[in-house]
Design a protein that fits this description.
Blueprint (H helix, E strand, L loop, with lengths): L3 E6 L6 H14 L4 E4 L7 H12 L4 E3 L5 E4 H4 L3 H28 L3 E4 L3 H12 L8 H7 L6 E7 L2 H8 L6 H18 L2 E4 L5 H16 L1
Parallel strand pairs: 1-5, 1-6, 2-5, 6-7
Antiparallel strand pairs: 3-4
Helix pairs in contact: 1-9, 4-6, 5-8
Length: 219
C-alpha cells in the first residue's frame, strides 16, 4: 500500500488531537506504518520574528491563552505587499517541516496522521494578517500544494461556547476562533473534506465517521 496523509483540521478544542490519536492507534493495530505529525503556526522564521515583535513592542501583539502570538498589529495594518511578504515568510518557513514530517514519509509509504498541518496554518495566517480571504491567495494555493494527492481530509468543528466549555481558560480568543472556524469551513467545502460537528456527537460516534472515511480510501 502506498503512503497517505490523514489530515484532521479545525479549531483547538474541537477534537483534532483526540481523533488523530484514535485513528493512528487503530491503523497501527492493523499493522500499518503510522507516523504522527503536528505543524504549528507561526513557522520557524515567522515565529522568531513574532517573538522579536513581542519583545520590542508588547502592546502591538495579540496572544492566546498559552502566550503564543496570534496577531501583530503593525502587520495587520500594513500594505498588501507587506502582508504578502509575511505570508511568503510563513510559506518558506513551513516547507522544511512539511517535507520532513509529511511529504517524505508519505512518499516512503507511511500513513501520516496530522492534527495540525497546512489547512490550520492557512486559517491562522488569515487571522494574523487580518485578511479573511487569504485562503484564496496565491501563497495559500502554494501551501495547499503541500497536500499530497493521496489524502483524507477531516474537518472537526464545534461552536465557540462548546469549545470554551471544554478548554476553559485555555480557549482561544473568540475573535480568533470564529475567524479560524470560518476559514476552515470554506477550505472544507472547497476541498470536499468530511466535516464533523463534534458538539453533536459522542467521541465514539465521531470516530466511526473518521474510520469510515479513512477505510474508503485505504481499502
Amino acid at each position: 500500500m502506498g503512503g497517505i496523509l490523514i489530515s484532521i483540521f479545525g479549531p483547538d478544542g474541537a477534537g483534532k488531537t483526540t481523533h488523530a490519536r484514535l485513528i493512528a492507534a487503530r491503523l497501527e493495530a492493523e499493522g500499518l506504518r503510522v507516523r504522527r505529525a503536528w505543524v504549528k503556526s507561526y513557522h520557524t522564521l515567522a515565529y522568531l520574528l513574532s517573538r522579536v515583535y513581542a519583545k520590542l513592542s508588547p502592546r502591538s501583539i495579540e496572544l492566546n491563552a498559552q502566550g503564543n502570538v496570534i496577531a501583530i498589529e503593525p502587520i495587520r495594518r500594513s500594505s498588501r505587499a507587506s502582508k504578502a511578504l509575511w505570508a511568503l515568510i510563513e510559506y518558506v518557513s513551513l516547507l522544511p517541516k512539511a517535507l520532513l514530517s509529511v511529504l517524505i514519509p508519505v512518499s516512503m509509504g507511511r500513513v501520516v496522521v496530522a492534527d495540525r498541518y497546512v489547512l490550520d496554518s492557512i486559517a491562522s495566517i488569515s487571522y494574523a494578517l487580518g485578511d479573511p480571504w487569504f485562503d484564496r491567495s496565491s501563497i495559500a494555493r502554494l501551501m495547499l500544494a503541500l497536500l499530497p494527492r493521496r489524502r483524507v481530509l477531516i474537518h472537526v468543528d464545534a461552536p465557540y461556547d462548546e469549545i470554551a466549555r471544554r478548554r476553559g481558560r485555555d480557549a482561544d480568543p473568540k475573535g480568533y476562533l470564529e475567524s479560524f472556524r470560518r476559514t476552515c469551513w470554506r477550505l472544507a467545502r472547497r476541498l470536499k473534506a468530511l466535516s464533523i460537528d463534534t458538539s453533536r456527537l459522542s467521541v465514539e460516534e465521531a470516530h466511526r465517521l473518521v474510520v469510515e472515511a479513512v477505510s474508503r480510501e485505504l481499502h
